[in-house]
Amino acid sequence: MPYISEIKTIRDSVGAVLKIHRQGPNRAQAAIVGTTWAIVDNQYFITAYHVFNNGQTRDPNDKFYIFSVPNNGPRAQHVPVI
């Protein structure tokens, strides 16, 4: 299979956009709202414009994170979208 190394490289560059919406002081809702791809050594990611509130003004109660599982391993990681 000549493409095994390429598949691994692509798989490791794919992540998800996680949205956490605070609904009160002790309540929040979390959802995966889109896909993202690392374009520079897991430092810069791209996604579609509609992933963030369908192009509407951002709700200050919403926080977005890049969620990924490096090497398809046992641990997931997340970093805030800034």
DSSP strand tally: 5
What best-fitting shape do the alpha-carbon axes yield? elongated
Unreliable stretches = none
Helix content: 10-25%
Q: From N to C, what is the helix and strand string?
A: HEEEEE
The CA-CA distance between the termini, in Å, is 39 Å
Main sheet strand line-up: 3-2-1-4-5
Rg, alpha carbons: 15 Å
Classify the oligomer.
single chain
Q: What percent of residues are in strands?
A: over 45%
> How many alpha or pi helices?
1
Detailed description of the structure:
- This protein is mainly beta.
- Helices cover 12% and strands 48% of the residues.
- The protein contains one helix and five strands; from the N terminus they run αβββββ.
- It has one helix at residues 4-13; strands at residues 14-24, 27-40, 44-46, 62-68, 77-80.
- It has a five-stranded antiparallel beta sheet with strand order 3-2-1-4-5.
- The chain is elongated, with a radius of gyration of 15 Å.
